[in-house]
C-alpha cells in the first residue's frame, strides 16, 4: 500500500530525524530523490538541494536531488522514475504546483506512488500533494486550487499551532474529508490506495497533528492510527 508522509515544515532539521528515519523504512529500491520545485530557480534551488542531500546522507541514505524541471524536465522525470522515495521540500505552494504540473514531474510522481514508492512533502510539498491545496497570497485569505491528488479528500494547513483561522476556513471550504493541521517537525503518514484514497492516518514527529472538520477537532496521537469512516 502506498504511503504519503505529509509534514508541517521546518524540514530537514535535527528534530525531524526520527520521523524521517521511520519514513526511510518504507523506501523501495532506488535512492531518495529530492524535488525542491517549491524553491526559486537558481541559487535557491541549488542551496535547498545541497542541504537536503547532506541531511539524508547523514541518515545513511543514498540520495540525489532531481535537476530543476523548469530547465531540464526530461532529467527531472528520469530522476523521479529511478527513486525509491521522493521528497518534496517546502517553499511556495504555487511555485511548486505550477512547476510539477507544467513539467510532467507531477504525473511521474503519481505513477511512482501507484507502484508503491513512498512520497513525502513538507509544508508546500505536503499542501500540493493533496487533491486540493491552499495557495497563499500576500494579503487576505489564501486562494485554493487543485494539487497533485496523491492524498484525496484532505487539505493541509502546515506550521500549525492551533490557530491560523483564515487558512483553516479556506481549507475547510474545499476539503471533502477534513483539514490536517500539522505542526513543524511533525507529520501525518497517510496509507492510501493507488488512487490516493485514504485508508489510514497516523501522526508522527514531535507534536500531535489535528484533524479538523466543520464540527470538531480531533487530535491525532503519534503512532496511533486513525481510520476514516
Describe this structure in words.
It is a single chain. The chain has 229 residues and is α/β, with parallel strands linked by helices. The chain has one domain: 3-Layer(aba) Sandwich (Rossmann fold), CATH 3.40.50. 30% of the residues lie in helices and 27% in strands. The chain contains 7 helices and 14 strands. Strands 3-2-4-5-1-10-11-14 form an 8-stranded mixed sheet, with helices on both faces. α3 runs parallel beside α5 (105-114). The radius of gyration is 16 Å and the shape is globular.
Main attributes of the structure:
229 residues, alpha/beta, Rossmann fold, 8-stranded mixed beta sheet, 4-stranded mixed beta sheet, 7 helices, 14 strands, globular
Concise structural overview:
With 229 residues, this protein is of the alpha/beta class. It is 30% helix and 27% strand. It has helices at residues 17-24, 43-58, 73-81, 93-103, 105-114, 124-129, 165-172; strands at 3-7, 32-35, 63-65, 85-88, 119-122, 132-135, 143-146, 154-157, 178-181, 186-192, 198-205, 209-212, 217-220, 225-226.
Amino acid at each position: 500500500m502506498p504511503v504519503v508522509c505529509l509534514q508541517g515544515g521546518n524540514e530537514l532539521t535535527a528534530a525531524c530525524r526520527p520521523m524521517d528515519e521511520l519514513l526511510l523504512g518504507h523506501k523501495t529500491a532506488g535512492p531518495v530523490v529530492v524535488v525542491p520545485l517549491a524553491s526559486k530557480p537558481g541559487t535557491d534551488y541549488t542551496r535547498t538541494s545541497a542541504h537536503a542531500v547532506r541531511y539524508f546522507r547523514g541518515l545513511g541514505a543514498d540520495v540525489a536531488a532531481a535537476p530543476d524541471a523548469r530547465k531540464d524536465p526530461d532529467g527531472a522525470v528520469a530522476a523521479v522514475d529511478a527513486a525509491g522515495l521522493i521528497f518534496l521540500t517546502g517553499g511556495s505552494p504555487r511555485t511548486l504546483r505550477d512547476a510539477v504540473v507544467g513539467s510532467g514531474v507531477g504525473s511521474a510522481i503519481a505513477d511512482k506512488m501507484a507502484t508503491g514508492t513512498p512520497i513525502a512533502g513538507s509544508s508546500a510539498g505536503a499542501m500540493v500533494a493533496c487533491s486540493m491545496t491552499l495557495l497563499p497570497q500576500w494579503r487576505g485569505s489564501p486562494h485554493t486550487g487543485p494539487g497533485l491528488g496523491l492524498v484525496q479528500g484532505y487539505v493541509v494547513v502546515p506550521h500549525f499551532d492551533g490557530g491560523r483561522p483564515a487558512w483553516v476556513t479556506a481549507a475547510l471550504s474545499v476539503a471533502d474529508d477534513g483539514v490536517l493541521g500539522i505542526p513543524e517537525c511533525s507529520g501525518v503518514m497517510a496509507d492510501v490506495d493507488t488512487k490516493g484514497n485514504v485508508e489510514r492516518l497516523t501522526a508522527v514527529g514531535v507534536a500531535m497533528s489535528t484533524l479538523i472538520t466543520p464540527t470538531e477537532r480531533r487530535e491525532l496521537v503519534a503512532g496511533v492510527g486513525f481510520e476514516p469512516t
